[in-house]
Each structure stands twice: as structure tokens, then as C-alpha cells.
Amino acid sequence: MTFFRKLAAAAALSTTVAGAASAQTIVDIAAGDERFTTLVAAVTAAGLVETLQGPGPFTVYAPVNDAFAALPDGTVETLLMEENKAQLTNVLLYHVDDRLLRAAQIPAGSNYFKPVLDSERLCITAGAGGVTIADGTGEMANVIIADIVAENGVIHVIDKVLLPGTRPACN
Q1: Which pTM value belongs to this model?
Q2: CA distance 151 to 57
Q3: Which CATH number fits domain 3-158: 2.30.180.10, 3.40.50.300, 2.40.50.140, 2.60.40.10?
């Protein structure tokens, strides 16, 4: 069993036991979906499981495993090291908004949104072709599944890991 799968299995077990008597939180949904094993491992390593099981509301832009695999070799392993916990936490908080934001609530065109990582901004563009998110590197993520509803918020599945950097320009 790989390191990621072990962390994800531990997180899934803890969230299953903790959430057995209630509806599913964002963490419960992610832990129960094989597409998010790397994300769950990262959330566990950063110590954010309890936070994201909290009352919210949260909007989480959740990268799939393939999005993490597309990062340069060694990036995920480096971020998961204990000495890089603060950096990992910042990357993860860049994927979280502390409001409930369903796809239909995203205004048409390009607009800045403030994630929980206060120092950064995302540029979210909604249009006929769907929803894209520009991160601090100027790269674009596509929302590939919108509005997975949890008891404490909503998940939008994305195809790229969002990375902080200089503020993206909305067109």
C-alpha cells in the first residue's frame, strides 16, 4: 500500500467512525471517493480534517489525483514532509472559500474570489463553456464536476492543483 493510500485509508476510517451518525461532510465525501486519495492524504498531513468537517459553510475546489500527479516530480512528496506543513496548508487553503458558492451563484464573466488563504485571490470565469479558475501562477483549472453537496458546503471538482503566486489577472 502506498504512502498516499495509507494516509487516505486512515483518514477515511476516522471520518467514517466520526461521521457514522450524521450526514456526510466535505471530508467524508472526499475520503469515500477514490479520485481524491491524494487530496485526502494532503488534508490529513496538514491537520485540516477536523476543520473541513466543521460546520462551514465551505466551498472546496477539489483537485483529482491526476491533478496532483501532473505537478513536477517530487512536489507532492516534498509538500507532505512535516517541515513543509505550513506550505502544504497554504496550498490547501487556497482551494477553500468560507462561503457556500454553488455553480449557479458564480456571476457570468471573470471575477476575483478570495479563498481562505487571505493573501491570495482566484479569478473564476463562468461562461457558456463552463467554469475555469485561474490561480496565482496564471494557469487555469477547469471545473469538471460542479455542486457535490455536503452537509457543510459544496465541492467543485477541478483538474489542476491551484497554486498561490502573483494575483491572477481576470480578463
Answers
A1: 0.84
A2: 9
A3: 2.30.180.10
